[in-house]
Design goal:
single chain, mainly alpha, two-stranded antiparallel ribbon, O-antigen polymerase, transmembrane, transmembrane helix, membrane
């Protein structure tokens, strides 16, 4: 029995509604430069809502999820820092409990459409205002986060949400932003998405035979191998394109630095067991920024912050939840997102995995007639 199976027909999953509201507001609405400590308020509030919901509906959780939460709590206190607590431990515990059993969760389309309209307006404003100044003085369009690649990640999640609820204005904004952000990862992830849609029948037949956990592990090994191959065999160009032509340029210095960051993590953990157990934590940026780029692999990035024990527990929960939603109707979201995370950071930490899992989980109820 899972949490949502206990919610009787006609009742809302308030935790789910609140989680999506917070994810949308924090990612897209609140300007990043404000640096508001909203997570220290929102996550405890979501925890209270979830615990109340468990009590009110007399919900039963799966034993494996309870065990995972207990192990995460123990590991967190053995290597305690408020940084780990609010960025990794508490969010992943909420995911383990809130999505226990990976059930479809009903949500009103009108609620999501309203949020998407606000998000659309906020992102149009941000793309009109925010710019990242490059080393050559050129400017790249971004969202308020100030990074074109992370802007691409957030736009990709918004695109998935709009596809799920058939919100065409949002889909159009997401497609147009491909050229505005000039993010290679976002551009090729969208191509992957549409290739899956075009060849959906054949792709579904192949993907249905795969185990998602094995796929995740093999994909990340391939991503690391691609980086090593690049470092050892690809001649790096001197120039660095900052305009839309960079979408088809792969041998520039930016990729070299990113793959070197991946290698640095693996080497540092191999040479220092204590570091591998504890992770870099809040020192991550100060260690990796000086080499020119931070880790551009979402799996390795989490491991770098958390260390191996907490990182393994963290991904145990994510893989368990996503595996439950590994169904044909979600393949067009899961495979492109996995591809995106192989070559960029932030995709598997913070609110990004929460919003992604929520998109996979939502069973949209069309309570109003769509005009889009």
């Amino acid at each position: 029995m899972n949490l949502n199976a206990n919610i009787i027909k006609g009742e809302k999953n308030y935790f789910f509604y609140g989680l999506i509201l917070y994810s949308i507001v924090a990612i897209y609405i609140i300007p990043y430069e404000l640096q508001l400590p909203h997570v220290k308020v929102a996550l405890p509030l979501l925890t209270i809502i979830l615990l109340w919901q468990l009590y009110y509906y007399r919900s039963k959780l799966r034993n494996i999820d309870i065990l995972a939460v207990c192990l995460i709590i123990i590991e967190t206190f053995l290597n305690f820092s408020s940084y780990h607590l609010f960025r990794y431990s508490l969010p992943i515990c909420l995911m383990a409990i809130g999505f226990s059993g990976s059930p479809p969760i009903k949500i009103k389309r009108s609620y999501l459409v309203g949020l998407c309209w606000f998000t659309n307006a906020a992102m149009i404003y941000q793309m009109a205002v925010y710019r990242l100044v490059q080393f050559d003085g050129s400017k790249r369009i971004t969202l308020s986060v100030g990074d074109p690649n992370i802007s691409g990640l957030f736009m990709l999640l918004f695109f998935f949400l709009c596809v799920k609820i058939k919100f065409k204005p949002g889909i159009i904004i997401a497609l147009v932003s491909t050229l505005l952000f000039a993010s290679r990862n976002y551009f090729f992830t969208l191509i992957f998405f549409f290739l899956i849609r075009i060849f959906e029948k054949g792709f579904t037949k192949i993907a249905s035979r795969m185990n998602f956990v094995i796929l995740f592990i093999i994909s990340n090994f391939i991503g690391i191998f691609v980086g090593e191959y690049f470092l050892n065999n690809v001649e790096v160009g001197i120039g660095y394109n900052t305009d839309s032509s960079r979408l088809f340029s792969f041998n520039d210095k930016s990729n070299l630095l990113r793959f070197e960051a991946n290698r640095l993590l693996i080497q540092s953990y191999s040479n220092n067991l204590d570091l591998a157990l504890k992770g870099y934590g809040a020192d991550y940026e100060s260690v990796f920024r000086p080499i020119g780029a931070i880790i551009h692999n979402s799996f390795l990035e989490v491991i770098a912050y958390t260390g191996l024990p907490l990182g393994i527990l963290y991904f145990f929960v994510i893989l368990r939840v996503v595996s439950g939603y590994y169904k044909p109707e979600n393949f067009k979201f899961i495979f492109p997102y996995l591809f995106f995370c192989l070559f960029l950071h932030t995709g598997l930490q913070g609110l990004s995995p929460f919003l992604f899992v929520s998109i996979l989980a939502m069973s949209v109820e069309d309570d109003t007639r769509s005009i889009f």
